[in-house]
UniProtKB/TrEMBL annotation:
Keywords: Signal. It comes from the Eukaryota. This is Pectinesterase inhibitor domain-containing protein. The keyword Signal applies. Pfam families: PMEI (PF04043). Residues 28-191 form the Pectinesterase inhibitor domain. Gene3D superfamilies: Invertase/pectin methylesterase inhibitor family protein (1.20.140.40). PANTHER family: PECTINESTERASE INHIBITOR-LIKE, PLANT INVERTASE_PECTIN METHYLESTERASE INHIBITOR. GO terms for molecular function: enzyme inhibitor activity. Residues 1-18 form the signal peptide. The lineage of its organism: Eukaryota, Viridiplantae, Streptophyta, Embryophyta, Tracheophyta. The keyword Nucleotide-binding does not apply.
Amino acid sequence: MRLYLLFLSLLLLAPASARHPAIRRRSRARAFIELQCQTTLYPDLCTRYLSCHVANLSTTPTHQKLAQIALKVTLDRAESTKAYVTEVAKQQELKKAKHYQEIKDCLDQINDGVAQLWNCIKETEMIKEDGVSRDFPWHASNVKTWMSAALTDANMCIYGFSGRAIPGKTKAVIKARVLNLEQMTSVSLALFNRFAARYKSSSSSTHDQP
């Protein structure tokens, strides 16, 4: 009986991470995400959004997987922003508001950005994970071009609101959403560039072997 009680007490005192491998895996995955996010311009934003996906990972993500997750998170932000601005544009069109065209122009930029991000996701899915794809430079160039275009789209939307006669609250909410999208796009581009550099290095090492 005493041995049983001793065993039970030791079990209860054992750290949760020692009893649950899944918790250890999530801890390692989060640590990896935090480390990689420090290489971006917006580390806190990066960590906040990407860490939400840790629970769905069975292992620590690779640089490629993290870049893909960041892209999908960015697309989600873009789709959400698109839905909001679309609704605002419909309301302003019905009111025949003078600033409708400015909002419509912003929506066009966001729509283009969404298309560019979809292209990026499809392209990254074509990249092999073994680090020896001869087509990698082509895929990487396409992704960087499209992601840079998506970043420009967000910038142009925000710039288009400067000095315009748009109601304060509407303008503030749209700018906040688009700014969030712009920052997340920047994060995605930084993480993809980091992955691309490592992939290229790995590929070169493999081809150099006799």
